[in-house]
Amino acid sequence: MKFEIIKEDKKTKARLGVIKTQRGLVFTPAFFPVATQATVKTLSPLDLLNSGVQGLLCNAYHLFLRPGIKIIKEAGGLHKFMDWHRLIITDSGGYQIFSLSPFKEIQDLGVKFQSHLDGTTHFLTPEKIIQIQIDLDSDILLPLDECCSFPITKEYANLALERTLRWAEASKEEFLKYGLKDKALMGIVQGSFFQDLRKKAVDYLEEIGFWGLAIGGLSVGEPQDLRYNILRFLSEILPKKKLRYVMGIGKPAELLDAIELGYDLFDCIIPTRFGRTGTCFTHKGKLVLRNAEFKRDTLPPDPECDCYVCRNFTRSYIRHLFNSSEILGMRLLSYHNVYFFNELLRKARQAIKENNFINFKKEFLKNYAD
Amino acid sequence: MKFEIIKEDKKTKARLGVIKTQRGLVFTPAFFPVATQATVKTLSPLDLLNSGVQGLLCNAYHLFLRPGIKIIKEAGGLHKFMDWHRLIITDSGGYQIFSLSPFKEIQDLGVKFQSHLDGTTHFLTPEKIIQIQIDLDSDILLPLDECCSFPITKEYANLALERTLRWAEASKEEFLKYGLKDKALMGIVQGSFFQDLRKKAVDYLEEIGFWGLAIGGLSVGEPQDLRYNILRFLSEILPKKKLRYVMGIGKPAELLDAIELGYDLFDCIIPTRFGRTGTCFTHKGKLVLRNAEFKRDTLPPDPECDCYVCRNFTRSYIRHLFNSSEILGMRLLSYHNVYFFNELLRKARQAIKENNFINFKKEFLKNYAD
């Protein structure tokens, strides 16, 4: 697996890149929808291809608990299991262990935790987490990490970071044992909102040596400017030639900010979660289509969008579906929102190609009211 | 709108026909999925076309209450509203008024009832029900009728029938006022499970004169043989050249029985409702894919089916989706089940063409355990 930078924008740090994989090419900056439980909620793999999705983020923790790794391995791996044959990144599930488990005990060698599904106790080590992701046949793997909540003391953030870095080292060692050329392991940069801790993370991870770097520990309840400041700070110290993946963001404006700072990859539940609750992304901002104002609105969800949903359905109809608790409403808006995010990223790539990113962003945000 | 019989099976009463409409041709015998609230639950119009659906049954009562007829009329009619451009039959909603309303008062001129959604009181006459269906721009309309529950006294069944027949007459008169050549009005045969009442219904409806005849009052909790006996009895006295529509059936074996008796059209919630609860129709019978036995089953839902779902997903994956409360599971099984029903009817038509219906049915049922 290789990441290459094709073109750098002349006026910003934005860059156009490509991940060359055995599953085909992924052009960056790219946005990956979240398929936590081996499905992007409400959407079929065909929908994802039709809406321009290049890759997905699945979750090792969730799949380990249900249906269990053996079942997926026997099925021929995660791609075959879920009928998705392009790139899959698997999140280690560190975040989920820390946020979902009713009980957890962090030890130096790993994490003991209770399943949020049935209360059974498990002990996962960084090595085991790597094995799980290899058994899933994931393409890009992420090590076990400890994602701190916000706010947190610097002392604890440092403690968690040091553990995360030791786990990163153990993960790298484990990953190397398999000698897999078609897969890549990324490092996860933690350190909460402390710049020196973030720098320590980058330096240490670079010393270990990872294929790319993922920025974790964001979107944990912090104000947006704090998040932006950390991303800006990191953008200065991250290795230039490696893939930079910001985990768990974001809204359109945030994605454009991060692209401008030179980040390449993003995942977020926003398009699908908002879609399931009746919120539609448009070139003019978000619309809550459940609202009464759309009762007789025969415009497409987003008149500037050319997706299947916008070409064939009206706001009035989608509102009716939501009001009638019809699943098709969730499905249509999830489809449109995923398409919308993919189109935004596609246009961003085009703008970088034309050294026009800053104008593109300005133009987009001028019309877009968040 | 015209119904023509293309071919009669030589060994049974089964017949191959075609409904010629401004929306295209519908080959019969045909099965229409139910789109009560202007959507076949979980499926898109594109899914319906891809799974061979020729037409849908929508519900005037539901759409009258929500989103309201004006909204659909303003949207350009029901076809445009829901992006379904082939045939639509609208049920009058008589059945729903009688089964869903918390309060109803049947009067000779119509029905006073409370909305099951918000408790508002409405009075619908047979004339108004026709106007509603014309405003919806439905293709095949059904008059207001009173559908009796089971069991019911003969006295009440007769009372309800006489009211239904008067309403049928009023509906026909109202329908004629519009002089619409592209639409058709069917009569609904009621009379519960009393043969003489059913005969009285057919005779009276024939005297009024309807484009086709729908058999109502079935699937209301009666034993299956009682239903079959009424269908067999009616098959002898219904006009030969008119479309015969059995409302609200049924399972595969029942559909084949009814086709053998010379019925042409069917609608039922079974493929979608079963699909949403994890039950898959296969050539060997129903499978409850939620069950633990399918945990590691890497076969397609139905190995003899060539639909999108069976070509790309396993029982194990679909079970995982249901166990994880993922909507995609409901969607995939609804799609497959609708496809399965359409294929069954398509094969039945082919068998009639080849004077082979009785063998086809025997062969199908030999493998199919209900």
How would you sum up this structure, described in words?
2 copies of one chain form a homodimer. By secondary structure, chain A is α/β, with parallel strands linked by helices. Chain A folds into 2 domains: 267 residues, Queuine tRNA-ribosyltransferase-like (TIM Barrel, Alpha-Beta Barrel); 92 residues, no CATH class. The first copy, chain A, has 15 helices and 16 strands. In chain A, the strands form 4 sheets. In chain A, strands 4-14-13-12-11-10-6-5 form an 8-stranded parallel sheet. Chain A has a 3-stranded antiparallel sheet with strand order 1-2-3. Chain A has a 3-stranded antiparallel sheet with strand order 7-8-9. Chain A starts with a strand and ends with a helix. Chains A and B meet through helix 13 and helix 14 of A and helix 13 and helix 14 of B.
Short description:
2 copies of one chain form a homodimer. Chain A has helices at 45-50, 60-65, 69-74, 78-82, 94-100, 126-136, 154-178, 195-208, 224-237, 252-260, 270-276, 308-312, 315-323, 327-353, 357-367; strands at 2-8, 15-21, 24-28, 30-33, 55-59, 87-91, 104-107, 110-114, 121-124, 140-141, 184-189, 212-215, 243-246, 265-268, 279-282, 285-288.
